[in-house]
Amino acid sequence: MTPDVVVTDAGQPSDRDVILRELVAYNDAVVGPSGARPLAVLLRDPETAETLGGLWGRTTFDWLYVELLVVPEALRGQGLGGAVLAQAETEARARGCAGIWLDTFDFQARGFYETRGFEVFGSIPGHPRGRERFFLRKTF
């Protein structure tokens, strides 16, 4: 059988699940289980319990990957971003991680991360056009 190659912007969650399952099976066979676990550090409204911002990521292969981190503009300047990141680091250490990695754009928070011990280990100039995307890590 020769499969069709299909390009779509309407892939289904079940399509992603198939791809992920195949990739995880291969990775597990080569290096062992990743130990993947989600991690969220949330900023919540104390009255409504509504999530206002925070951090979303996962620990896998002994590292925490931070996919998303945001403090709403109205709450910035109060140390909340640093507190959220510190809580994530504490949990990453408790899970036995060797460090944290993430990416950010030049118009976002590179300096924020660097003042907290992160270092740039790569970048993509021109992503988006006229800007730059940075990859940072912090090892424990």
TrEMBL record:
Residues of the N-acetyltransferase domain: 1-140
Pfam families with a match to the protein in the record: Acetyltransf_1
Gene3D superfamilies: 3.40.630.30
Protein name: N-acetyltransferase
Record CDD domains: NAT_SF
Record-level Gene Ontology MF annotations: acyltransferase activity, transferring groups other than amino-acyl groups
Domain of life from the UniProt record: Bacteria
Record PROSITE patterns: GNAT (PS51186)
Organism of origin: Methylopila capsulata
